[in-house]
Amino acid sequence: MLEDDFTYVIRKAFKGLSLSPNEAAAAAGLPENDVLAFSRGKFSAIIARKLAPVLGLDSEALATHPEFSPQPLHTAGINRLLLPFGDDHVNAWLIRDGDTAILFDTGDDRSSCLEKLETLGISKLDAVFITHAHHDHIAGLPTLAPLTTKNYGPRIPGTEPMDADETFHFGNLTIHSVDLSGHATPSLGYFIEGLAEPVLVTGDALFAGSMGGCPDEKKYQHALNRLVAVLSPLPDETVILPGHGPGSTLGEEQKHNPFIANRFTF
Question: How many angstroms separate the CA atoms of 7 and 28, rounded?
């Protein structure tokens, strides 16, 4: 299942644009009650197509959003660690190539990430990379000390501070940090080369079919600008590994994610 259904998508757009549903309805030429019903879960492709341009969303992607389900990932070396987060889940991602093992994010509690790694037979990590400082991504970091002393993140306690445009090499893997701030600032994504397909770990900057919510207009626009800047040079086959929800590919997101569909071409 997607992390966000269509109601979360439009609510994030409302907030990012500082638009109320009645303001959006007036701009789209729609009855306010229809837009309110839509925002509360009564889906209509007709409403979606009329409302999307007002919200800066792709009309076709929003109109077909309930049908979108990304294809399962088949790239060898990628392990999704689905960790508890209240009544929901958060992702950590383990990337392996030969004897190299690298972890991205660590979950919302101290123990579940380490327990998952133990079930996978991981007794040593070459490094841990953190995307951003929200609790559900960093809480497991202290308990991973027996596995590695190489922890990296954007100015996060317990990590070696790093910025965008830094490059690391571990065996056959190359990891390049990119600026994906907006939902959180600072926030880093990690572009990984060396597997069968290129990989981008996005944290909460980009989900399958959605993006992380932003607290105000300025940060929302910055988040969209950073996504376009980072994603534009990448090929369709790039595997997207988000902080919540299933993995996807850039090609699928370019067609089905209302926030980024048709904002750029490859």
Answer: 17
In whole angstroms, give the CA distance from residue 219 to residue 226: 10
Residues 6+ apart with CB under 8 A from 250: 200, 231, 234, 235, 236, 237, 238, 240, 266
> pLDDT tens digits, residue range 148-187?
999 999 989 899 999 999 999 999 999 999 999 999 999 9
In Å, how far are 94, 102, 190 from 199, measured between CA atoms?
A: 12, 13, 8
Domain ranges of the chain: 6-67, 78-256
Q: What is the pTM of this model?
A: 0.97
Query: What tokens appear for 77 in the block?
Result: 């070396």
Neighbours of 144 (CB within 10 A): 20
- Whole-angstrom CA distances from 222 to 16, 157, 205, 207, 218 are 10, 25, 11, 17, 6
7: phi then psi, degrees, rounded to nearest 5? -70, -40
d(CA 127, CA 119) in angstroms, rounded, equals 18
Which residues in the chain land under pLDDT 50? 266
Find residue 201's DSSP bridge partners.
Answer: 190, 241
User: In whole angstroms, what is the distance from residue 51 CA to residue 106 CA?
Assistant: 38
Other beta carbons less than 10 A from residue 125's beta carbon: 19
**Which homologous superfamily is 6-67 in?**
lambda repressor-like DNA-binding domains (1.10.260.40)
Residue 262: the pLDDT is 86
- CATH number for the domain running over 78-256: 3.60.15.10
Confidence at residue 263, expressed as pLDDT on a 0 to 100 scale: 82
